[in-house]
Design a protein that fits this description.
Blueprint: H1 2-9, H2 15-24, H3 36-50, H4 57-66, H5 73-83, H6 85-90
Helix pairs in contact: 3-4, 3-5, 4-5
Region (Disordered): 80-111
Length: 111
């Protein structure tokens, strides 16, 4: 971040000063996770807003990320399982068909 500020704007800042500014301005770190209670409330609100329990953790996570709330998918999945256990049981993981080579008459690549 500091190098980008220096190259783009000619402004030099050290990591410690940047960290102090982030704390003072209450800018959350992307590495710090939100408290579990807050994640649970956000996921519950999003499940109600989507009005469809067929939506999985990734859809909920993307919807929250569009609002600027970044939560790991594992946290969203665990909270969604707690909030709506029937919806979680109803959804099935997508299973991919095993790969089988084609029996078509295409010739092999020429060397």
């Amino acid at each position: 971040m500091g190098k980008r500020l220096e190259s783009d704007l000619g402004y030099s800042i050290k990591r410690t000063c940047l960290a102090k500014l982030q704390r003072r301005l209450q800018i959350p770190s992307t590495r710090r996770r939100l408290p579990k209670e807050m994640v649970r409330d956000l996921v519950e609100d999003k499940i109600v807003a989507l009005q469809d329990s067929s939506k999985g953790a990734e859809t909920i996570r993307k919807s929250l990320a569009e609002e600027g709330i970044k939560i790991p998918r594992s946290d969203v999945r665990n909270c969604a399982r707690e909030v709506d256990p029937l919806g979680h049981a109803r959804r099935k993981r997508a299973r991919r068909a095993p790969y089988t080579p084609s029996n078509s008459a295409t010739p092999p690549p020429a060397n």
